[in-house]
Amino acid sequence: YAEILELFKRDCPAISSNDRIVLFNDTLFAHHWTYGWQRWMKTFAPRLPVGVHGDGRIEPIHIKGKPLKIIASWHFVIVGTQALRAFHHALNAVCDAFEEPIKEPGYAAYLAHYLRPRYFGGVTQRFTPHSDAYQAKQKAIWAEHRLSMALDQSEMLTPYGQVLYQGLHGIDRAFPAWRRFRNIWAKRVVG
Questions:
Q1: 151 in Cβ contact with 90 (< 8 Å)
Q2: Rounded to whole angstroms, how far apart are CA atoms 118 and 107?
Q3: pTM over 0.90
Q4: Roughly how many angstroms between the first and final C-alpha of the chain, as a whole number?
Q5: Which residue from 91, 72, 85, 82 is spatially nearest to 141, judged by alpha carbons?
């Protein structure tokens, strides 16, 4: 994301307060309802106000006495120059602390629970604790949470809230739930 934003800064210096930058990562195609998100972006992204918008959640952990509000890092809609500056600043801070765990009471237990595969919630893949893949996923989650905390502090964190988004989100979450069920069931049948 940092490289993409540097390209935007270099190649698009005339970003106005109403311009939108949409960033997706490759999980859109593997874990999400592509057609639904395409329709959402076409219909609703042009109406979004200034901010960094995304697929919002409130995690079951408190950081510095407040519930952890995040937008999932699989996509962002960045609207306006103020939001772009806040996103870039937050992303630089995240990159500086990428290797460091978040040290808050209860956070390590929360993360261990999240990384345990189950039918609903958590991750789709199975990880062996302390494996390279597990460590990489942990760092990615630390980064996602730090980015959201920084955006929240700058008042640019803007989870989608429309009723139609709730419907899209429900259908979208059915895909990974089915994948979890299939993967866990396959392990039990084969294993």
A1: yes
A2: 19
A3: no
A4: 38
A5: 72
For residue 106, the surrounding DSSP H or E stretch is none
- Find tokens 């989870």 and name the residue: 159
Taking the CA atoms of residue 180, residue 160, residue 143 and residue 80 in that order, the dihedral angle to the nearest 10 degrees is 150
Q: Is the separation of the CB atoms in 15 and 147 below 8 Å?
A: no
Exposure pattern of 131-163 as b/e (b: 16+ CB <10 Å)? eeebeebbeebbbbbbbbbbbbebebbbbbeee
> Alpha-carbon dihedral of residues 52, 56, 62, 65, nearest 10 degrees?
40
Q: CA-to-CA distance for 123 and 127, rounded, in angstroms?
A: 9
Place of tokens 């866990």: 184
Give the DSSP H or E segment for 155. none
**pLDDT tens string 86-134:** 998 898 889 889 899 999 999 999 998 888 866 555 565 667 778 898 8
Tokens 């190649």 appear where? 11
Strand 56-63 with 66-71, pairing: antiparallel
DSSP 8-state code for residue 4 = H
